[in-house]
Amino acid sequence: MDRIDGGSVSMTGPKRGSPMSPRMSNRPSDADDRSRRGGAAFSGRPGFTLIELLIVMVLIGLTVSIVIPNIGVSYDKFKFRGEVKRLVEFVERTKFHAFYYQKNVALSARDRRLVVDGLTEREKDIPPLEVEIPREIRFFSNGVASGGSIVVFYKGQTALRIDIERFSGRVTRTSL
């Protein structure tokens, strides 16, 4: 309502621009901000837009899809190397066992699995690798070996060869 006091017009409510005035500040409205900034509704506020978040999620998904299969392949190779190391240690232990307990021990392969004759079941800790032994390898009670080689396969392909020297029984590993 307007009131007339001696010919001047005044407002009965708070003055324009005062803190009590609800939408009558000197600051431009949000609609004015949007029109000046190209129509983005949240332009001046901190945070990310939906498009930015989607792009980041797609990049993370691509990275994971590339990395995970490679980790699996690396793990398989790491596990294979560990089993080969166990096989070499097993052959060296077998040589020592034959000499220490004065027994003859023979290594051969059957169905691509290592077979050991001359050890008790408790003494056998044979790694589960695919192997081929062209001719039987014997470790004698006097510390001498017949010599020979063990071919080790990885996923059906020849991976490496373990050689046992004749007489000394020295074990060496050769990658193929």
Characterization of the model:
With 176 residues, this protein is an alpha+beta fold. The protein has a domain at 54-175: 3-Layer(bab) Sandwich (minor pseudopilin epsh fold). It is built from 2 helices and 9 strands, in the order ββααβββββββ. A 4-stranded antiparallel beta sheet has the order 5-7-8-9, with helices on one face. The protein is rod-shaped. The termini are far apart.
Query: Unreliable segments (pLDDT under 50, ≥5 consecutive)?
Result: none
Give the distance, in angstroms, between the N- and C-terminal Cα atoms. Answer: 100 Å
Which fold name corresponds to the CATH topology of the domain at 54-175?
minor pseudopilin epsh fold
Mean pLDDT: 81
What's the arrangement of strands in the largest beta sheet? Answer: 5-7-8-9
